[in-house]
Amino acid sequence: MFVADLHNDVLQRAYVGEDITKETKNGHSDLIRLHQSCIDLEVFVIWTPKDSENLNPFTKAKEFYEKLVLLEKNNNIKITTNLAEIEESKKNNVLAIPFSIEGGEFINNKIENLHYFIEKGLFYFGPTWNNSLDWVSSNYDEKHNRKNIKFFGISKFGEEIINICIENSVIIDVSHLGEKSFWDLEKISSQPILASHSSVYNICPHHRNLKDEQIIAIKNSEGLIGLNPYPYFIDKDFALKEKKFRESFINELNEKFLLSNKSISNWLDKQHFLQKKLNAITPSIDVFIDHIEYIINLIGIDYVGIGSDYDGLDCLPKEMNDCKDHIKIIERLDSRGYKQNEIEKIMGLNLLRLVESIKG
User: How far is CA 136 from its chain centroid?
Assistant: First the structure.
């Protein structure tokens, strides 16, 4: 079986100096645990939002990529860019690690900055994270911060960015795009659409989740939806439960992690702290499987994948402690009566179909 995971933020930990070539006690993954898992392809994400370090986002993104290149040496991993390389990696038992970029801050309104990463083999590109840019609006801002939006939807410059990606076979990821931006993209693009790490709005009405009409539009584009197991995205009652539970350790949390410190290191330390705390109240993995089944029932099994968001989450469903538990998704699907060929589609073959259609 070929197993692909569409979104992993572990590269942040490497960027701040953690040795992820060794088995670690923090987070959800490292190269040792990934090799021990059932995963054959793991998309490593470059994520460079504004923070207190105040570095140029393009410079930071380059540093992330350079860290990835260093990791590739002598660790039985390969930065893959197309279907042939992915298939060769699987054949040789090498972990494929295509890279993506989440958030267009690095472009700095300079087309050449985008071309820099296209030439490096950019796998997919998410135009926004939570923060809107002056050429595209995010789902967070469209829902919660309309006053912060400089352009509602995708501007003419944004359309140019999208078209350059399409011309160069870079997949566009909509997981953080606002609804207006999503529908603007749907009009602009003739390419299959990817949602790398989102879940179902109709089950859990979170701004990061996809509404039915968006899910259907992704199917109509011959795209793919990577379901995200984050409890906030799969369980509509989790946010209130977590808020009440957090009160029991709020003083400890505030003492350890200053809100004014927005560095990646502080964010990671807070994530690791919460990962240990929140396991006590997370929903069952079966709630996550319900989201997978919803998509299957709505649009069919050919458009479903998994986007775990490992190391980008402060908690996972029960029975999922780290990437080695990725196999439990397979076990749950099997227990619900899915056939081997259907499970293989969900776990990886649907991604290969998408890659073949865009990158060849």
Answer: 19
Q: Contact at 8 Å (CB) between 68 and 278?
A: no
Average pLDDT score over residue span 238-267 = 86
pLDDT tens string 280-330: 999 999 999 999 999 999 999 999 999 999 999 999 999 999 999 999 999
Q: How far apart are CA 282 and CA 106, in angstroms?
A: 34
How far, in Å, are 41, 151, 158, 183 from residue 180 at the CA level? 31, 10, 13, 5
Predicted structure pTM score: 0.96
Residue 66 in tokens: 């350079």
Q: Which of 229, 277, 269 is nearest to 27 (CA)?
A: 269
Place of tokens 């011309």: 167
Structure tokens at 251: 């003083």
Where b means 16+ CB within 10 Å and e means fewer, 219-251 reads bebebbbbbbbbbbbbbeebeeebeeeeeeeee
Kind and range of the H or E element at 85? Answer: helix 83-91
Locate tokens 């060769």: which residue?
Answer: 88
Do residues 83 and 355 lie in contact, with contact meaning Cβ atoms separated by under 8 Å?
yes
Asked if 121 contacts 168 with a C-beta cutoff of 8 angstroms, the reply is no
Map 133-158 to HEC letters.
Answer: ECCECEHHHHHHCHHHCCCCCECHHH
Residues 213 and 175: their CA atoms lie apart, in Å, by: 15
Helix (H, G, I), strand (E, B) or coil at 172: strand
Residue among 312, 305, 310 at smallest CA distance from 320? 310
| Start-to-end Cα distance in the chain | 21
Residue 207: helix, strand or coil by DSSP? coil
Residue 91's closest CA among 78, 74, 73?
78
The amino acid present at 64, given as its one-letter code, is: F
CA distance 85 to 96: 8
C-beta neighbour count of 150 within 10 angstroms: 12
DSSP category for residue 193: P
